[in-house]
Amino acid sequence: MIEFWFEFGSNYSYLSVMRIGALAAHHGVTVQWRPFLLAPIFKSFGWDSSPFVLQKEKGAYVWRDMERRSAKYGLPWVRPSHFPRRALLPMRVALIGADQPWMEAYCQRIMQMNFVHDREVDSPEVVSEVLAALNLPVADILAGAQSEANKLALRHATEEAQARGIFGAPTFFAGNEMFWGDDRLEDALAWAAASA
């Protein structure tokens, strides 16, 4: 089993969301989807945005790197006109879907809305569109996502991420071993498979 900690505003999480299902199946590893929020963790470092925004040179590198890596994996990529995008509502829905069979498809579609179609994902309209396309009960899921219990659960998930030393997304845990970044996905899966 591998824990997959991700955020819809994270460009490198996009690459992992699109790849992890098939790669995990190839390794015989199950994926535990762990949505959390990056903004509170960044704020704890004294940052008011992504380091890719705060550090000009790093940002320039990252956008070219995303072009290269997306091409390598055969994934479509459009640099978002607004980055990082707020994704609170879709993250709350992801928490509801974390152990549901529709989770991977939902996450992939939300990521594509952000990083392929350049749409604002933190809206009931976009989230409803994605859920409806998956033939899911839109109203029930949105109501559950906006419940106080679910909001608190996402806050707790973010606190857990921080307590476990997560500083960015995507992050993977294979047992107690932490791997950070999309470029460590294969290593994390190999470790999880070898430890099973």
TrEMBL record:
Q: Where is the DSBA-like thioredoxin domain?
A: 2-187
Entry-linked InterPro entries: DSBA-like_thioredoxin_dom, GST_Kappa/NadH, HCCAis_GSTk, NahD-like, Thioredoxin-like_sf
Gene3D superfamilies, per database record: Glutaredoxin
Molecular function GO labels: isomerase activity
Q: SUPFAM superfamilies annotated for this entry?
A: Thioredoxin-like
EC number of the protein: 5.99.1.4
CDD domains found in the cross-reference section: DsbA_HCCA_Iso
Q: Which reaction does it catalyse?
A: 2-hydroxychromene-2-carboxylate = (3E)-4-(2-hydroxyphenyl)-2-oxobut-3-enoate
Q: Which residues cross the membrane?
A: none
Q: What residue ranges carry the coiled-coil annotation?
A: none
* Keyword tags: Isomerase
Q: Read off the Pfam families from this record.
A: DSBA
Family membership, please give it. Belongs to the GST superfamily. NadH family.
Protein name in the entry: 2-hydroxychromene-2-carboxylate isomerase
